[in-house]
Amino acid sequence: MSPINKIKLKKLRQDLDKLDNSFIKLIKKRTNLVKEVLKLKQYKNEIVDKKRIKSILNQIRKKSIKNNIDPKITNRIWKNMIMSYIDYERRNFKKK
Length: 96
What we know:
This protein is mainly alpha-helical and 96 residues long. It has helices at residues 3-40, 50-66, 71-92.
């Protein structure tokens, strides 16, 4: 790699790191909302709402296409996020 490209790469990686820090803040906000949602659920079988998951993934696909983002990327990100929060809810569910 040329010295100029090494400099460019370093700058791009710094920009990615800044963006990652923003993601962390958003994930914290999302986690706090999920905690509130979980408080409202009385039964463990309320954790997974397949209809809602399907709707969310559909909307993400549409928004991705509209914004010229590869929908396979966003679909994978959202599926993983949804599954991670389902796991979180299951681990933190308190029987009532």
